[in-house]
Amino acid sequence: MTERKHLTGLEVEKLLAATKGSRHEARDRCLLLLMYRHGLRVSEACGLTLSQVDIESRILHVERLKQGLSTTHPLRPDELKAIRAWLSIRAKMKPETDAFFISALRKPLNRKTAWLAIRSYGELAELSLPSHPHMLRHACGFALADQGADTRLIQDYLGHRNIQHTVIYTATNPARFEKLWR
């Protein structure tokens, strides 16, 4: 059997909990939460700018990479709370960049730093498999499928041009058969 390529909702919660008390708690909690809830690739998360995160309108403008379709997503209350906590710390750092996520050196957060953070939070959370950023994107797709979201809606949400990239989330979901034989 091949190794699982996604985290479960419970594992994502453990990953988020593992940020508590860490040096970059507010940033990393916000990063993990947005990557999970919006199915962001690590480069999309690291490339986020301040103008893409609209707290007043409670929306996130997602610029997809890999020729994906860019979309606008609603921000949930817990996401807004994490964003506000991070932005208050970010403001005190006075960075000279419009990058949303920044490093301790006040430069845009890079992929490697995000990668290493997610791996170490996975170890801290004692997850049963090594975690990496793309597992959060897959976790998003599976979580949406578990909630009963239609394949086309998941396709749009994740910015997939080809539905073949989306069916993996719904094809393996036993919940889709629940209404059969009633």
Structure commentary:
- Helices cover 47% and strands 5% of the residues.
- Helix 1 (9-18) runs antiparallel to helix 2 (25-38), helix 1 (9-18) crosses helix 5 and helix 2 packs across helix 6.
- The longest helix has 17 residues, at 77-93.
- The relative contact order is 0.17.
- It starts with 8 loop residues before the first helix and ends in an 11-residue tail after the last helix.
- By secondary structure, it is mostly helical.
- It has one domain: Intergrase catalytic core (hpI Integrase, Chain A), CATH 1.10.443.10.
- It has eight helices and three strands.
Give the SSE order as H and E letters: HHHEEEHHHHH
Q: How far is it from the N-terminal to the C-terminal residue, by CA?
A: 33 Å
Report on the biggest sheet.
3 strands, antiparallel
According to CATH, the fold-level topology is hpI Integrase, Chain A
Strand content: 5-15%
CATH architecture: Orthogonal Bundle
Tags for this model:
3 strands, globular, hpI Integrase, Chain A
